[in-house]
Amino acid sequence: MHIKTGQIFAFYAFDAGYEIDLQRISQILKTELARKLIKKKTAPTYIQYQTLPLTIPMGEYSFRLVDMPMKAEVTAKVFDFGAISIAYRMPFSCYLSELNRYSAALLYDVNLDVEAKRFLEELFLKIKPAVKKPSISGIVEDYFIFQVTEFEKDITAKDLRKDYSMDIARALRFESGDISENEVNESLKNPVSYYENDMVITDWNAAFVYDRDYGDTIDVLEFTNVELVELRFNDGLLDKRLIELYDKIYESRRYFTYLFNPYDKTIRTISELKVEVSVLFERIDNTIKLIGDIYLAKVYNLTSDRFHFDKWEKGIEKKLASIESIYVILNNRLATFRAETLETIIIILIAVEIILGLTRG
Known about the structure:
- It is a single chain.
- The longest helix is centred in the C-terminal third of the chain and has 52 residues, at 309-360.
- With 361 residues, this protein is an alpha+beta fold.
- It has helices at 22-29, 99-108, 112-127, 157-163, 165-172, 181-187, 215-254, 264-287, 294-306, 309-360, and strands spanning 2-15, 19-20, 54-65, 68-78, 83-95, 131-132, 140-151, 199-202, 206-210.
- It is elongated, with a radius of gyration of 27 Å.
- The chain is built from ten helices and nine strands.
- The protein has a seven-stranded mixed β-sheet. It has a two-stranded antiparallel sheet with strand order 2-6.
């Protein structure tokens, strides 16, 4: 089966700061807001980005893939919650049985991630004044999409999955040889189709999209990859802060005096951290609404399952709970410290009163 027309998308998601002023960037770069989601299937009008990201053209990038010259259109999508996605979009045509060669080469033979970081840094220098707490995280999430618009002959999604499951699974798993039947079934489980001749299959690091009307699906997959990098970033941030908090607690014990409260700064830090993480997740949750669009909701839910969002979120919730417990402990210590300080002051005042009384006598 020959892929007559199709495109490869390579996404690289980064965290670049706590918050980004998109309107200010729009003024700086004089670019337009990203297009709204196209409502592919029957869907209510409110299925849109609540806060539209900015899509910024970054030019073209040429390289060789499987000994073939490739020219990719590069764009950056900037989200208000501090994330930036660098996207490569390149047309391709090959036999379906060769698709795994392209996927493996993308992952192992070319340095698109290095170039994505370069594009990001180039953009970051321009937009830094619009970023609150600017800092490019070392965490990056990549995701690849193989989108097929047309095969050499018409084929239904059912027949495509039945007759070419091994070819698709090898591409999604970046494997050069045949893989086991169990792995094929695992890779291709839960495909999403609306019509007989369209299909979306999502795996942990790649997706296969057979559809002529693919724009909204690509947007959802890109956003899911961005959401993953934010989960990873915040999980790592909480790990780092927990270690710092434990160190401060033990250090503070050595310097605990009646004249100085060592917990004030730590308590303020914990309060700010809880607010920051809560606000960030609220903004991410409100960025895109797919309620009512069963097709896109399925694509999002299946992909988030592949990314193990539930485990990341539970891990973050557990760390936030640990931070909350530290906050309670420190507040209790602070209350005890204040009570002891007050008692000491009262004792001192009584002693002074006694001494003054004796002196007068």
